Amino acid sequence: MTSGTTPGLTRFNTSADSEALAALHEVCSSSAWGSKILAQRPYSTAEALFLASDAAMAELTAEDLAEAMTGHPPIGRPKAGDPTSSREQSGMAGASAELKAEMLELNLAYQDSFGHVFLICATGQTGEQMRDALRKRIENSPEEEREIVRAELGKINRIRLTRLAEEESSA
User: Fold this and answer.
1) Which of 26, 72, 117, 140 has its CA 20 to 30 A from that of 130?
2) What's the number of CA atoms in the CB half-sphere (13 Å) around residue 48?
3) d(Cα 100, Cα 118) in Å, to the nearest integer?
4) What is the distance between the alpha carbons of residues 103 and 83, in angstroms, rounded to a whole number?
C-alpha cells in the first residue's frame, strides 16, 4: 500500500518530533536526511514520503552519506538482535561457509579501498548475487561508488519507510 494515509503514516505525521526523528534514524542514520524528512511533515501519502526521501537523499554530501552508512552492518554479519538487518540480509542466512568466508574477505578489501562497509539493498538478493555485486563494485572509482551507495541507500530507505508507513501499531 503506497497511496493514501495509512495507520503508520498517520502516527508518524502526528508523533512528537523526537519520536519521529527516532523512527527516521531507524530508517537512515543520516541526521541531515532525517531533519529534511521531519521538516516536511505531514505527508498526505506514503508516496509523498518516498519522494521527499529521494529528494533528501539526492542532496546528501559525502559526509552525510558516510554518516548514513554507519547504520549498516557488513553483508553477512547482521547486527546481533537487530531484526531489520537480519531480515534484509536473509539471502546470506543459508550461505555456505565458503561463501561467508569469501564475503568476509571481499568486505574487508572493499572497506580498505573505500573506507566504509559495502552497502547494497540486500532485500531479495541471494548471497551469490551480493558477492557478485561486491566483486564488480570493488573495481569502481570512489566517485562512482559514492553514487551507487546513494542509490542503494535510497532503495533501502524506501523499503524501511514502507514498513514505517504501513505499521499497524508502534509495538
Assistant:
1) 26
2) 14
3) 14
4) 21
